[in-house]
Every structure is written in structure tokens, then in C-alpha cells.
Amino acid sequence: MSRARSYLWFFAKRLGTVVFALWSLGSLVFLMIKVIPGDEAQIAAGPDASPDQVALVRQRLGLDASVIVQYFRFWGRLLHGDLGTSITTFQPVLLDLERTLPSTLELVVVAMLINLSVSIPAGLIAAARRGGRTDGLFRVLAVILGGMPAFWLALMLQYLLAARYRLLPISGQNSYGMEPPRWTGVPTLDAIAAGNMASLLDALTYIVLPAAVLAVLYSTQIFRALRTSLLGVLESDFIMAVRAKGATERRVLIGHAFPNSINPVLTLAGTQLGAMIGAAVLVETVFARRGIGTYMFNAVAQKDMYAVLGSVLFIGAIVCLINLVVDVLQIVVDPRIRAAQFGRS
Amino acid sequence: MSLAPAIRMRTPRVKISFQGACVSLLIALLVFAALFGPMLAPEAIYRSDILSSLQPPSAAHWLGTDDQGRDVLWRVIVGTRTTLLSAIAIVTAYSLIGVAVATIAASGPRWLDEALMRVTDVGLSLPSMIVALGFAAALGPSLQSAIIAQSITGWPITARILRNVMHQTMEAPFVAGAHVIGVSRWRLMTRHVLPNSLDVLIVKWTSDIGGTVLILSSLSFIGVGAQPPSTEWGAMIAGARGYVSTAWWTVLAPGIALAITSVAFGLLGDMIQAWRDPSLRESR
């Protein structure tokens, strides 16, 4: 098989997996709707609906048909972007999700930046001082921080830094009156777009704590992966050659070992991106950011099932697509993985 | 009788490190709390006593009292049983599913193997906590729902790892030997290949208990798991979150218990791994 064809085949297979995953996800959500105890029409119409309204909803959702017919109708609605209507906001769930997604993505992106900018230097330092006191301290810290529940850390830091010492705002996304005109829905980007520095700084003070909390667990993972990877590379022959040439330790580490150890770390960071969207749900609710997590939290509290399951479907789909993009990017970026997949290049 | 080469494990000289001592102590404490906590706890922690609510830590209440005037330390101790038992139930349940999937995949025909592994791929590519959240919400928020939800979403990693290991084990000479003397394929897989492949998973299951406790508490915190006044730690934090600025101790204690549990089981997993695989013993 030619190279081009094997590339195409690879992407087709990946895409097939994603389509299969999305189909499974949709079917799982259909299953979830079916296992909800009680009358589905009543649930869709909300607990306060009158019998007439319930009957209307039952007819509109076609709940008198057989399960198989319902399943196909469910997919018909899904493919038209109809995730049902929220009984608390009275809006289509998809519209609510589109409105809340940018805030969540902002949180995840900022958290990823914090994650990498903390864990990579820490990994480098620990590997340089292998077995030393700094290395030991970092490793113990990684173990302890990695075991903390994110939502609890969020609550405790919110109490300490925001409520008690008033260093940072407690919750929300902007101070009153500082909100930039909505364009993307991402407070920091909107502030930049409006050219409003004060508003940008304001939005940053609101995001730094939630993002840092979200970053903690993932930075401990990156730290460990980078350290292990670096120590492995530092033992290889070419490093000995570099040392023999008389390169300084700093140059050995940053100029030679680091570029050769970064790949597993980037792979891990890619898989973390999806996981972080899931974890953002927890952190958001503590800080009352207007993202999907808070939306979902409120929906659970209000027993707004279409909103809950719509969010599950939406987040699952986004994570699937992110995983696909990360997979493909990895192939594009790393010649070694490319070679493993497609033979010698 | 197993046909695996009968290698007697030489009992390694047990050298107890500082870390090993700490982890063992923590696990022993957790197990003790889970076994005897509910028996020893004073009756008052199940009743509300509004007059003594939200008291800061004192000699009478070492970690203070919550909004209902109940002793926080005792509630955390009592919650150990709920939390640990739930986590063990979840890990056991999804491990059984994972083992079943892996065994069928490894011993069945090729197309079945391929099909099951594609399904496993899907399970791995979906955010398991979010799917578990959906199931728990659909089943009706409760501890049982959270346990069921996590059990049916947690198996893919086990299935993937085990299936790959089983394929490796099938290359071993003793398997060929068993095949030659006419052991049926199913018996070969379940009685010989599977038991000789479970090694890797022991480590994973141990550290999984720590991670499972965290996810379980997260589900409770979001509101789809255990509900207050349950003593499950996540539910305790969820119930106390409204008081964090006036009574920080109500949130602090269950969170520390969660962190200790997840760290202790994570480290226990590492220790078992190092013990089973001497090449890892040199700290890396």
C-alpha cells in the first residue's frame, strides 16, 4: 500500500471510531432516558405541568410509539440538533449549552497553560537534581496534590484566598459593570476584542484561581511523566556523547534531553484535555462560573433531565472530537509514531 | 492443577521503608475506622442538636461541629465504611465486567475480539465521569445509583490491559503444552491463561480504589450520588459547602480524609508493584 493510501486509511479508521463512539454515546443517553423512573412525558414537561400539557408533550415526543420507533425518532431529533427543552430556562438545551460552552473552554485552556508552565519546569528541575532534596520534595508534593479532590481544593482555596484574605474575587466571571460586550462568550477574549484592559485584568483575576485548582491534578501527572521520560533519555548513549563533547549540564538537559523527552508528555497533555473538560464541571460549580458545569449542576438540582443528559451528550461529543484531533496531531507532529503506524517513512 | 511452571516465589526479605511504614499505618487506620467506626461512634452524630451547631474545633469536638451540631470527626470516621465499601464494590464490579470482556475477547474468534476491542475503544474515548454522572442522574440521585453508574463505566481500561496481557500469556510455552495435551480452549483460557495474566491488574485495582473514592465523592458533590445526611465524604462536603466561610472545619475534615485515602491506596499500589517487580525497586 502506498504511503498516501495508508494515511487515508488511518484517518478513515480514526473517523470511523469517532462516529461509532458518537453513536454509542447517543444510544447510551437514550438508554439513560429510558431508565429514568417515572413517566417520561411528565419528566420532559416538568413536575409542575398540568395533565393537558403532559399529554401534549407525550404526543409531541411520540411516546406512545414502540421503543424502536422512539429510538429512531430520538436520533432524528438529535441529528437536527434538538436535545430537548430545558424545564428551568425554557430554552432549547442546545442553545443553553452553546451559550455556556465558551466559558468552560476558557477555563480548560487557561488551566492547561498553568498546568504546563508549572509542571514542565518542575519536571526539569527534579530530573536535574535526581535523588536530591528538591527532587524528593517535588515528588512528595506531586503525590499529595495528586490525591486531593478538585472540588474540595476549590472550596478550601476559595475560602482562604477569596473569603478570608480577599486576594481574589470569590465567584463569577467579572466584577459588576466590568463585563465586556459579549462576542465570543469568553470573558478574556471579549475584553481583548473590546480593547478594554481593565476588563481583561478583571476577568483574569476571576479565572486564575479556578484554573489553578483545575490544573493541580493534571500538572502532577505531567510532572511525573516528564521526570520519568527525562531520566530515561538522560541514560541514553547520545547524552553521553553530548557530555563528552563538553556541553554544560544545563545544555545537556534543556538543549538535548528535553526535546527528546517531550513527546510522551504532549501525548499525556492531549488526553488530559478531554478529562479536564469533565473535571471543569466540578470546579466551575464552586466558583459559579457561567459554564456547562454550573448549568449541569443546576439542572441536577432542578431535576431538569433533558438539560442534564443533553450536557452529558454534548460534553461527551466534544471530548471525543478533541481526542480525535489530538490523535491526528500526534501523527502529524511525531515522526516516530508516524513510522510505527505506517512503516518506515 | 495449573500447568504454569511452578516457580516458588522466594519470599523477599522485608525491608520496611519509611514510606512503607506510613502507608501501612494509614491503610490500617482506614480499615480500622471502616470496621469499628460505626460501632464506637456516639449516638449523637445521627441526631441534630441545633444549639451546638457550627462550633469551632475544641476539646469536646476535636474537629468542630457541623450545621446540625454533629461532631465532624466522628462523622468522618463513620463515613469511612460507606466510602471504602462503596469504592471496593465499584472496583470489584467493573473489574468483573472487564475480566469477562477480556476473556471473551482473547478466547473468542477474531471478529469478536475485534468487535469487543472497538467497544472498549469507545469506552476509553468517552469521559467516564460525565457518563457516570448521566447514569446516576437518570437512575435517581443516590449512593446506589452512583455505585451502579461507576461500575458500568469503569471497566474499559481493565478490559484493554487484561486482553493484551492475555494475548502475551498465550505465547508462553506452557499454553502450547496445555493445547497439545488437549485442554479445551475455554478451559485453557479460564483456568490457565487468565490466572497467569491477572498479576498486572492487582496493582491497578489497588490504586483504583483511591481514584474511585475521588470520583464517587465528586458525583455526590455534583448532587447525583449520596445525599446528605449520608456520611459519605463527598456528601458531607456537599452538605457543608454553604458554611465554608463561617465554619471551614466542616469542609476541611472530609476532604483530608478523601486525600489520605486516595494517596494511601495509590502508594500501596506502587509498593505492590515494586514488590512484585524488583527492577522497579530502584527509585526512578
How does this structure look, described?
Chain A has helices at 3-35, 40-45, 51-61, 67-79, 93-128, 133-146, 150-164, 187-193, 197-234, 237-244, 249-287, 292-301, 305-333, 335-342. Chain A is an all-alpha fold. Chain A has 2 domains: 3-79, no CATH class; 93-342, MetI-like fold, CATH 1.10.3720.10. In chain A, helix 11 runs parallel beside helix 12 (292-301) and helix 13 crosses helix 14 (335-342). With 284 residues, chain B is mostly helical. In chain B, 67% of the residues lie in helices and 0% in strands. Chain B contains 11 helices and no strands. Chain B has helices at 18-40, 72-107, 110-125, 128-139, 143-153, 156-169, 173-180, 185-193, 199-222, 233-240, 249-276. Chain B is elongated. Chains A and B meet through helix 1, helix 6, helix 7, helix 11 and helix 12 of A and helix 3, helix 4, helix 9 and helix 11 of B.
Structure, briefly:
The complex is a heterodimer of chains A (345) and B (284). With 345 residues, chain A is mainly α.
Low-confidence stretches of chain A: none
- Cα end-to-end separation of chain B: 38 Å
Largest sheet properties of chain A: none
> What is the string of SSEs of chain A from the N terminus onward?
HHHHHHHHHHHHHH
Radius of gyration of chain B: 22 Å
The share of residues in helices of chain A is: over 70%
Number of strand elements of chain A: 0
Listing every helix as H and every strand as E from the N terminus to the C terminus, the arrangement of chain B reads: HHHHHHHHHHH
Key terms for this structure?
heterodimer, A: 345 residues, mainly alpha, MetI-like fold, 2 domains, 0% strand, B: 284 residues, 67% helix, elongated
